[in-house]
Write a structure and sequence with these properties.
One of its GO terms (molecular function) is DNA binding. The chain crosses the membrane at residues 99-118. Residues 39-92 are annotated as: Disordered. Residues 1-31 form the OmpR/PhoB-type domain. The chain is α+β, with helices and mostly antiparallel strands and 177 residues long. It folds into two domains: 2-89, no CATH class; 126-174, no CATH class. 48% of the residues lie in helices and 13% in strands. The protein has five helices and five strands; from the N terminus they run H-E-E-H-H-H-E-E-H-E. The protein has helices at 2-9, 41-53, 68-88, 90-118, 150-163; strands at 19-22, 26-29, 126-132, 135-140, 173-174. The strands form two sheets. Strands 3-4-5 form a three-stranded mixed beta sheet, covered by helices on one side. Strands 1-2 form a two-stranded antiparallel sheet. The radius of gyration is 43 Å and the shape is rod-shaped. The two termini are 73 Å apart. Mean pLDDT is 73; it is low at 54-90.
Amino acid sequence: AISTLRKMLKDSTKSPEFVKTVPKRGYQLICSVERLSPFSTDSNTDVEETASEHEAPAVELEASDTPPTEIVTDTTADLEPQVEPTKTQPKPASNTINWLPRVIIFLSLLLPVCVLLFTNPAESQFRQIGEYQNVPVMTPVNHPQINNWLPSIEQCIERYVKHHAEDSLPVEVIATG
């Protein structure tokens, strides 16, 4: 609203003649203002001359025979139709903006499900490197040798079997190192 007023008054923001910006407060009117009666034609002529001196359009200062309340009513009647189309137009834009995040979320949830359903994991192949307490010890085929760890693995299996004698024994041990 202030920028529109400044455009109509041809007022600069750097060296204002009519409206001054007050930091953290708002705006201040710095020009002189005269009160006019709507029925006086002489004062309207003076106002038009003053307006032409400042090169501002005199749209609101035209002579009229209607009381000021009707002018205000006409102004609000003019503003209402302008406001309604503005409210109507953003709704389709908000709908377009609204569906985009939903589609992105849907695809981000669908992608991992598709990967899990339609891909098979590569099955690992193992080789047996030992057997302790009837529990085979396996290692992946493409894994380097872990022969130095065999005594530790054997000790681990024996302690597990000793402490968990009541529970079931492990089916196999896969050592990766």
